[in-house]
Amino acid sequence: MAALDYLDFDLEVEAGATPDVYKVSVLSSPRGEASGQMTFPFNSDALENVILKLGRTRSGVRAIGSPTQDLAQKFGTTLYDALFAGEVGTCFRRSLDEAGKQGKGLRIRLRLEDAPQLAEVPWEYLYPSGLRQFLVLSTRTPIVRYLELPQPVAALRVTPPLQVLVVVSSPSNLATLNVEAEVQRIRGALASLERAGQVRVTVIPAPAADGARTHASLMDVRRALRSGGFHVLHFIGHGGFVDATGEGMLAFEDENLLAHMVSGTTLATTISGFDSLRLVLLNACEGARQSPADPLGGVAQSLVAQGVPAVVAM
Fold first, then answer.
1. Residues of the chain where predicted confidence (pLDDT) is lower than 70
2. Which residue, 42, 113, 217, 289, is the most exposed by fewest CB within 10 angstroms?
3. Long-range pairs for 31-36: beta carbons < 8 A, 24 or more residues apart
4. How far apart are CA 272 and CA 276, in angstroms?
5. Does 205 sit behind a cis peptide bond, omega within 30 degrees of 0 on the bond before it?
6. Distance (Å, rounded) from C-alpha 287 to C-alpha 205?
């Protein structure tokens, strides 16, 4: 199946003088520009309550009509109706139609630099009731949190095989992760592409000859990147966010297999300069979380700010 091309729907949200009232602007789209005003529909307590409920145990989440799904839909509908009100919503619906006529998807690029207090809102739950689905669950309507940078993004073309570096970090003093199963899922998903020579997967740390565990340090990652010409970095491990400093962290391992907490800034500095790297995927908690006081403090944001073209994170 051919890859889907996308048209961009650039949506900017700016804080105003009145609390909870924001200017919403369509900077560009297949059907032109538009602007409007959004009154944010949730107070801080209500928003925190929803986020907590949606982030609880996964049991029953996938059941049709489950309380969690109902909550997600109601929350997403309220959020969508506020953001896509008036001319902005009309422009979005017409842009969807235009993209469909061209056989393309419509990528929503959400710009929140001028409204950092909305950075922690789970916009990925946007649910237009008329479409009867979450936008992010359709390949035709991805939502991207777009970060404006001064340098242009280089072309994303690569010559096969696509080189994927999988970094597995499971420190012995943190909760045990089923990393082996996840690695097997990655290998299973890419098996046919590997056989065809289109993808090559490298996992670190590699098992020792005697079967003993070896560690995955930040320097191990840098050494691998230096030697491999990798296009994708996939991190599997623990993550967190330090409210006091406003920094996102990832747990790498030291030589004793204990946690070595690395900030997003340190990680970004360590892996910067590897021009072949096109994508970083962080399968770690709070990899995309940021502080309203420092929009670039999260791990994902730090990586993008240092030149990584794209980051997928929670």
1. 1-2, 55-66, 149-155, 207-214, 286-297
2. 113
3. 31/91, 31/94, 31/95, 31/98, 32/91, 33/91, 34/87, 34/88, 34/90, 34/91, 35/87, 35/88, 36/85, 36/86, 36/87, 36/88
4. 10
5. yes
6. 21
Beta-bridge partner residues of 291: 294
Tell me the three state secondary structure of residue 201.
strand
- Token couple for 215: 């560690």
Residue with tokens 């391992």: 253
Where are the extended beta strands (E) located within the chain?
6-15, 21-28, 34-39, 105-111, 143-145, 162-168, 199-204, 232-236, 239-242, 247-253, 259-263, 279-283, 310-312
Global pTM exceeds 0.70: yes
Q: Is 154 exposed, middle or buried (0-12, 13-18, 19+ CB in 10 A)?
A: exposed
Query: Strand order in 310-312's β-sheet?
Result: 199-204, 162-168, 232-236, 279-283, 310-312
How far apart CA 238 and CA 89 sit, in angstroms, is 38
Please, are residues 238 and 171 in contact by the beta-carbon 8 Å criterion? Answer: yes
What are the helix (H) ranges across the chain? 44-54, 67-83, 86-101, 179-195, 218-228, 264-271, 299-305
User: Tokens 């049709």 sit at which residue?
Assistant: 64
- In the structure encoding, which two tokens stand for residue 260, read together? 């070595």
Closest CA to 282 of 247, 241, 234: 234
φ, ψ dihedrals at 184, nearest 5°: -65, -35
What is the chain's length?
A: 314
Q: Which residues contact 137 (CB under 8 A, 6 or more apart)?
A: none
As a whole number of angstroms, the distance between CA 253 and CA 220 comes to 10
CA distance 203 to 220: 11
- Interstrand relation of 6-15 and 21-28 (parallel, antiparallel or unpaired): antiparallel
Do the bridges between strand 239-242 and strand 143-145 make them parallel or antiparallel, or are there none, so unpaired?
Answer: unpaired
